[in-house]
Design brief:
The chain is α/β, with parallel strands linked by helices and 470 residues long. It has helices at residues 3-11, 14-33, 35-47, 52-73, 75-83, 105-110, 142-158, 202-214, 224-236, 255-264, 374-382, 412-426, 459-469; strands at 123-127, 137-141, 166-170, 184-187, 192-196, 219-222, 245-249, 269-273, 282-284, 290-292, 297-303, 306-307, 314-320, 331-337, 352-353, 364-365, 371-372, 387-396, 399-406, 431-436, 451-453. The chain has a nine-stranded mixed β-sheet with strand order 4-5-3-6-7-8-9-10-15. The chain has a four-stranded antiparallel β-sheet with strand order 12-11-13-14. The chain binds zinc ion (ZN). Zinc ion (ZN) binds at residues 285, 287, 289, 291, 344, 346, 348.
């Protein structure tokens, strides 16, 4: 929500907030029920039984159209392909992709205007969550948004979710004051309860678990870290909360997290892989494999600039097939994964990829027992001005350093704003220090961790004991 809207929302009584939330949720409702989304969902289901040849033929046909369209309607590609002397007509199949130059996030940042199609396409502007790199602006066609949504609905269907009562723990700000007696707002429109992940703490743990039980929630929609925290609470109270499925996205789910989540909620967790650029998606099936959607984009795995074969891992390079507003062709997304090259025992024939690896981040614990997820804390960096990348380090229970790589225009005012944002999000109980650095060092595996906790021991024990001591 935009700042002005948030301010107005905060000032409203609970009943009006609920009406507001339900109004906002009608957008999701309409998206799910759009005939186009429904058609895409049926297509995505049909694709599951296609042979490799059929999939290849489909992607190659679409690819030819996208490349031709981009050359004719998008100034950036016209310039780039002319410069590189690329004959766009020579790109006939997916195998010809390497005749085209790759483009980077930096290219997108610098050439945003020239990457827009000169044709009028219904679209929305979106921002990638600036975590290790400052947010990137992209334009996504309404069509691509619907296809993306259909792909995540496919995952929901595989998980057996058909609109049962859900609880959602993502970045929503439904609750503005964690002292609120009700820790959620009810979305009647989407039949779910919206919690604010910023209000997850050891003090609220009992009430959150009780409300999930009392509201007879059957589905959990969450970031893996939030799901893990809830499972840790159940473990702490030695309880189980049987659900139908846990649906997660946005972060990888580590083995130990899955184990605890599936044990405490007595159901399977189903992941969804996608990105703001709406280029490729993959849905986790009941056998734990990530199946590519195939209709939305072509995924290449690249190592040192060269495509690698099935079974090998590398960085992702994607070509979106459905976004005519701002085509992304051979775009270096740089997630780490690879084609498994194996047939999945679920019987679906679409190619599968390894779970996308990303940075292993830590949780932030506040002196009053709040547990802050990596996504919640790094999303603050998204609003930082003139910052290239950042990293958050909790040195002790009451101190936190925000390391940033400032851009040229970074001013004292920007620093002040950054400081204020973190203070208002975490409270006065933690001292925030902004540290300007030239670069954020990568860890051993070459991955940059966004959030590092230097507090020793189990963070949950620490959080509970901090509060019990008082
Ligand atoms: Zn499968």
């Amino acid at each position: 929500m935009a700042n002005a809207m948030m301010k107005a929302y905060r000032a409203c009584p609970r009943s009006l907030q609920t009406i507001g939330i339900n109004l906002v949720e009608t957008t999701s409702w309409a998206l799910d029920r759009s005939p186009t989304t429904g058609r895409y969902l049926e297509q995505l289901k049909a694709v599951q039984s296609w042979s490799r040849e059929e999939l290849d033929r489909y992607q190659s046909t679409k690819l030819r159209q996208v490349v031709r369209y981009a050359y004719d309607n998008v100034p950036f590609y016209r310039r780039l392909y002319d410069q590189e002397r690329v004959d766009v007509e020579s790109v006939r199949t997916v195998k010809d992709l390497d005749k085209l130059p790759m483009i980077t996030k930096e290219d997108v940042r610098i050439n945003y205007d020239d990457l827009q199609s000169r044709k009028s396409v219904r679209s929305k502007v979106q921002y990638t969550s600036g975590t290790t790199i400052s947010p990137l602006k992209v334009r996504i066609s309404t069509d691509a948004i619907k296809l993306n949504r259909a792909s995540s609905l496919l995952r929901d269907h595989w998980a057996g979710y058909r609109g049962e009562r859900a609880a959602r723990f993502v970045g929503d700000q439904a609750i503005t004051d964690c002292a609120d007696t009700t820790l959620y707002r009810r979305s009647f429109v989407m039949n779910r309860f919206l919690y604010s992940s910023k209000c997850i703490s050891v003090q609220t743990s009992r009430r959150i678990l009780d409300s999930l039980k009392n509201n007879k929630v059957q589905i959990l929609q969450c970031y893996p870290s939030a799901g893990y925290i809830l499972a840790k609470f159940l473990e702490r109270y030695d309880e189980h909360l049987p659900l139908k499925a846990v649906l997660y996205s946005s972060e990888p789910l580590h083995g130990f997290e899955r184990e605890l989540i599936e044990d405490r909620f007595q159901c399977r967790a189903f992941g969804f892989y996608g990105q703001i650029e709406h280029a490729v998606t993959a849905a986790e099936c009941e056998k734990g494999s990530y199946h590519l959607a195939m209709l939305d984009g072509v995924l290449e795995i690249v190592n040192n600039g060269e495509q690698v074969g099935e079974g090998e891992r590398g960085s992702t390079v994607v070509t979106a097939l459905a976004n005519q507003a701002m085509p992304l062709i051979r775009y270096q997304l740089n997630d780490l994964t690879g084609y498994t090259g194996e047939d999945c025992s679920c019987g679906r024939r679409t190619p599968t990829i390894h779970p996308v690896e990303s940075k292993a981040d830590d949780l932030i614990i506040t002196p009053s027992g709040r547990i802050v997820t990596p996504l919640a804390i790094t999303s603050l960096l998204k609003s930082a001005r003139n910052v290239l990348e950042g990293q958050i380090v909790q040195g002790s229970i009451d101190s936190l350093t925000v390391r940033i790589v400032p851009l040229e225009d970074f001013s004292a005012e920007d620093e002040e704003l950054l400081q204020q944002m973190f203070t208002s999000a975490l409270g006065e109980e933690i001292t925030i220090r902004v540290e300007k650095v030239g670069t954020i060092h990568a860890s051993g595996a070459g991955k940059k961790r966004r959030v590092i906790s230097q507090i020793s021991g189990d963070p949950f024990d620490r959080a509970f004991s901090e509060v019990e001591e008082k």
